[in-house]
Amino acid sequence: MRLVALFVMLAWGAVLSSAQTPKHPKAATTLPPAPTAYPIESLIIEGNRAHTAGQILAAANLRVGQSAGKAEFDAAREKLVATGVFDNVSYHFAPSKDGEGYDVVFEVAEVAQLYPIRFEELPANDQDIRAWLKQKDPLFGDKIPATKPVVDRYTGWISEFLAAHDYHGAIAGKLTSQPDAEDLVLLFRPAKGRPSIAHVLFTGTGAVPSGELQTAMYVVAIGVPYQEAIFRQLLDNQARPIYEAHGMLRVAFPKIDIAPAKDVDGVSVTVQVIPGPVYKLARVTFVGADYSRSEWQDLSKLKTNQTVNFDEVKAAQDRIRADQRRVGHLDAASQVKRDVNDDEHTVSIEFQINPGPLYTLGKLNIVGLDIETEPELRKMWVIAPGKPFNVEYPDHFLSRVKEGEVFDDLKTTRAETKINARAHTVDVTLFFNK
After folding, report:
1. Is the pTM of this model over 0.90?
2. Domains and CATH numbers, the chain
3. Which of 4, 239, 253, 268 could form a disulfide with 199 if both were Cys (CB 3.0 to 4.6 A apart)?
């Protein structure tokens, strides 16, 4: 009750001093100033979602039992606002129930958008940098706001950490996209721009000539700013298929080294290759269409009990799609499912075929012929309206017309198709220039 009693005494003293006016001045009596800080008996955080109350109180430098008043609470609020983690911070306090201290409530509104934090091309382990930031920032988490105070503070802390490891280059942090991330990430890396790839070298290539790999990578990599995640994507798109065409399905690129190029401005990238064993094709199956297994097998031209070649598998996919389009399934597609047996070094593949809707011929329009020759030409056209449309037929038809020399003075021909995806029909226009 000390705090409540003090409020009463101060009020009563003010009444007495206004009611009594002495006739003769006396020596002034100096009283000690009334205390403005009292022990904090309870601390409550409201409105927080991404951060715990403990994190926020640590950042505010407040704790239960601490002697504090309005000045300390204002300072704590300013500290929280300065972090850049909160859109708004407010507080209120009142005497506790026992009158011995304060009950305090801080209300916070956190910045809503948080981003994963990443590091790139820094001469330190990611885990060590994260441990350092967690030590420096009570509000550190897997995701943080990308506000300027946060980015500036983290840039300074990372620079401080790297300086202790004898690295003094400038660091920059910014929001960016990454190949393996759906959303933006807050990336910290050297402020200097990424060096461009000048050379790509391979070691341990096995049966595949290194020159073949270099040629495949040079087409897409030379001159591109080096970024390991993107470079690995290029390896998967360009180098991995070369090994899979030789049956080496478990090829790995475990180590990538970069060094300044000696002859030009850029970096030389050296890729370590572990080719892995050669796999044989054990079985081929087909699902999702009406053909018999033997018909699909003949169309695919794939042979079992031989080294699997995924270039040939891709060619089989293309033939299957072309065949489906010839019978009216213009949207046909397929996926290849692999079932790899690492003990026996075999792979079984399944073509999962999706024919899509059946398209039929809508209208046949002929432009450039007179009323006498047009009917004769229509008789030569074999696909009737409403029948399955063959995407290859219009060009094939015009080739027959040219080869048959139906028109002596025919100069050029061409065909145009107009697809109605909703009605699943195709209108064809044939143009003749005589």
Report:
1. no
2. 2-11+33-110 (3.10.20.310), 115-190 (3.10.20.310), 197-274 (3.10.20.310), 280-354 (3.10.20.310), 360-433 (3.10.20.310)
3. 268
